[in-house]
Amino acid sequence: MTQPPLVAIACQGGGSHAAFTAGALHALFGPHHAERFTLRGLSGTSGGAVCAALAWAGLLTGGFADARRRLEAFWTHVAASDPIERVVNDWSLAFARLPVTAQLSPYAYCALAEPRLRELLGAYLRLDALPAGRAGPALRIAAANVLTGEAGIFGGEDLTLDDVVASAAVPPIFRAVRTRGGLWWDGMFSQNPPLRDLLDLDPKPRELWVIRLNPRRRAEEPMTVAEIDDRRNEMAGNVPLDQELDMIRRFNRLRLTSPDVADRYAAITVREIELDLHLDYQSKLDRSPALLETLRAHGARRAAHFFEDRSITVLPDGRAA
């Protein structure tokens, strides 16, 4: 009988669009798919880091069932459900879509987004309740050092709540987050999401599954200011990811001709699913229950594509599929 592949899952960041990631992970960890792969590790950036951390904490504590429970509970409670939250959410989106740019420092007013995120993460991550040693699938999340410009990768072995908030601290909505002796912003400025850190795990995964939130391609030229901003954001979010995927292709090819490279690096197959709904940049700030539920349901449907050949984007010999 064929052994299930040893897999690492990488979750791209994208604000509220990470509800798509939550839906995909929820489905992968469910009864139809969970026995079809062996999970070696998870990585994520920003909203992807939140999903990866919640899933990882659940896996360490209660397996797939607990991982699913934490993902569902977090995204249910992050939604703007009560009347006041809905009004604030609608007004915030309307303001964000105005054809003007408001220059307002997050240090000029009382922080709003960060305390709410901390409250929810504290309730559903519950890092203090994790088993000693935190043995299980690995976790790697990305942030960017504001002062040095360097990438930071935080591991699950000593993960703190500050680390997860730092990975999601997109300016200017968030202030920089102080953790590990530095000041950190959203990991989209470094690795989005971390890939090579998953490939360094021992034992090494044989497949890397990427949940991509920013579409690679668009069918039409962006012409309005809003369309240009949307596409610029998508492309900027994809640059770190596509650079790391290109590195994997190169190493896969080098393995065929270099014994030294073959000894150090395992051939890796990369599979991807992509959020392919046409959503504008401002929708990454939208916490409306309808949008989040749509994204979660779409992610759940897309998860099955990981088990189909059409999801392969990098072959073990380095060719693009």
UniProtKB/TrEMBL annotation:
<dbReference type="Pfam" id="PF01734">
    <property type="entry name" value="Patatin"/>
</dbReference>
<keyword id="KW-0378">Hydrolase</keyword>
<dbReference type="InterPro" id="IPR002641">
    <property type="entry name" value="PNPLA_dom"/>
</dbReference>
<dbReference type="GO" id="GO:0016787">
    <property type="term" value="F:hydrolase activity"/>
</dbReference>
<feature type="active site" description="Proton acceptor">
    <location>
        <position position="186"/>
    </location>
</feature>
<protein>
    <submittedName>
        <fullName>Patatin-like phospholipase family protein</fullName>
    </submittedName>
</protein>
<feature type="domain" description="PNPLA">
    <location>
        <begin position="9"/>
        <end position="199"/>
    </location>
</feature>
<keyword id="KW-0443">Lipid metabolism</keyword>
<feature type="active site" description="Nucleophile">
    <location>
        <position position="46"/>
    </location>
</feature>
<dbReference type="GO" id="GO:0016042">
    <property type="term" value="P:lipid catabolic process"/>
</dbReference>
<feature type="short sequence motif" description="GXSXG">
    <location>
        <begin position="44"/>
        <end position="48"/>
    </location>
</feature>
<dbReference type="InterPro" id="IPR016035">
    <property type="entry name" value="Acyl_Trfase/lysoPLipase"/>
</dbReference>
<keyword id="KW-0442">Lipid degradation</keyword>
